[in-house]
Amino acid sequence: MSVVVANLSASDDYFRFFGLTQQFTIDLPALDQAYLAIQKEVHPDRHARGSDSEQRLAMQMATLANTAFQTLKNPVQRGLYICQLNGVDAKLETNTAMPAAFLMKQMEWRENLDEQAEDLQALEELMDEVQSSKQETLSEIAQAIDGAKNYQRAAELLRGLLFIDKFAVELDDAIAAWPSLHSH
Known about the structure:
Layout: H1 2-9, H2 14-17, H3 28-41, H4 52-73, H5 75-85, H6 100-115, H7 120-147, H8 151-181
Helix pairs in contact: 3-4, 4-5, 5-8, 6-8, 7-8
């Protein structure tokens, strides 16, 4: 149980919990391995003969490992978590401020989606643009966090990324719905 207890004390930092460096550009295979190692360590079968408090601790660890893993695996959640660790709350619910360039792009994409709903190729080209915009934003976030340690800027970019993800889902739906709408 010593590993478990040691890790529980690091539970205020998901990166420390998994023995990873706190950064946006994360080693996903290392995250997976650390997660699986902890899952094995705290598996109920391993603590079936343990005391109630040992079983409870193992249960807490398993829950914490899940939360930490889900948070770090998802780029948006990971970025927001790092901002939070550094005292910047992205306040996604209340703060919808985005760089003007993002807002312009958002309007442009919306128009394209509406105007080109009939044109599958145009929708697919738009999807390529959205995906590359997502990749660009991810590298800007990595730069803001890992490079400049500018967590305000990162929070702003993360809000932009959420919008890109949301739009990508809508666009995906439009592309998926296309054949049924246009098979005459």
